[in-house]
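seq as requested:
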Amino acid sequence: MFTLNPTSPIPLVTQIVDGLRRLIAEQALKPGAKLPSIRSFAASHGVSVFTVVEAYDRLVAQGWLVSRANAGFFVKRRAGDAPAAGEGLGSDPRFDARWYLQQIFESRNLPLKAGCGWLPQDWLFEEGVRRSLRHLATDGVELGGYGLPHGHMALRLLIAETLAERQIAVGAEQVLLTQGSSQALDLVARQLLKPGDVVLVDEPGYPNQMFMLRFFGAHPVGVPRLPEGYDLPALEALLVQHKPKAFFTQPRLQSPTNSVTPLAQLFRLLQLAEAHDLTLVENDLYADLDPEPRPSLASLDQLRRVVHIGSYSKTISPNLRVGYVVARPELLDNLAQLKMVSGLTSSDLTERLAFGVLTEGRWRKHLKSLRDRLAQAHGQVAAKLGALGFELFHEPKAGLYLWARHPDLTDSAELSRLAAAEGVMLGPGELFLVSPHPTGWLRFNVAFSHDERLYGFLAAQIQLHAQGAAA
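struct tokens:
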């Protein structure tokens, strides 16, 4: 199965858990497969029975295995898993977007993460975080009690000042701090929507948001994304047909396409929102990665019909879950109440840590360096994909992503399964669709797409397709 290292500082139990999870995630162990008995596993790997018992129990608790009396341990079947051989009709397994999304976060150990949604650690402001941590330790950390309902005041003031530089006029009282942009989106959706409501989303768009909206009982409908922004005729038709309550969108450096909505379209979108009584939820979490001082929906509308969301998880650290939402006062008060009811306050400690990073003298220099580095990576990755024959949806030379497809690789979900077995995490296009279906589109994170092994894998798959077509 895999090799354990008794001299590693990682405990043997953890090595077993991680190893089996990886085999299950890569489908080397299929749903329903029986694992070796506890004694057999212990004997073959040279560990104690008690070590294996603890590892298997952890995997059962985490939902990876199921224990059957007098039968043993089996890989747990998940929603969307196809029947194993001999179980049912044996139809080809189809792509399960929710399962794959979970693997993206649980398979961070894959050597090549070309499809992930975060920056490499050495691209982040690690030294700034360390200095902020030292300052917190020196100044003393207040561990008793909770933070403020709206979040740490100094950080809210700083965000208000930053937004003012982007022509969004708000005071600190209109800033609500959240645990990343995901909590902000969650709060806004629960405040604006009720079960049965139709809500517009970008397509392709943000998978977590689509799952969240469906969980609330809302019905997401996709607005086609084009290289130059929105498909406005399609958007207008959807507004008339569905009468949606809100449109959750990323005008700037949108994931996964990385397209940017031009000013004229932003104005038209605001006109349509006014005419159709539509709330626009603008997720601007990539603003700090944009070298251009572009207008936003919030700057044009000043929060009349726009709810504006931002985050520091992309630039400071994915593990530092600090985001924010700004909105008109009466709506923000309702969001603050909902935040308190659902989870009390956000973490004052992490908000103070983020404030220390953002007020560190090198922060702006770090952002400029990061933008320059991303621009260079865009050029390099675009050239390598182009050399293999990939079509690029858009070349913004900013942000994290390139959205691309190859004419011979028509099923990105199947390609992603093959890639995982080779230690490569890809971003299959089906993951980003409202109604998943086979597509050749892939999301490439340019910061993680420099390794030649990635292009070797893609070239091999293209060659295999060519050989199959010639046979």
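The radius of gyration is 24 Å.
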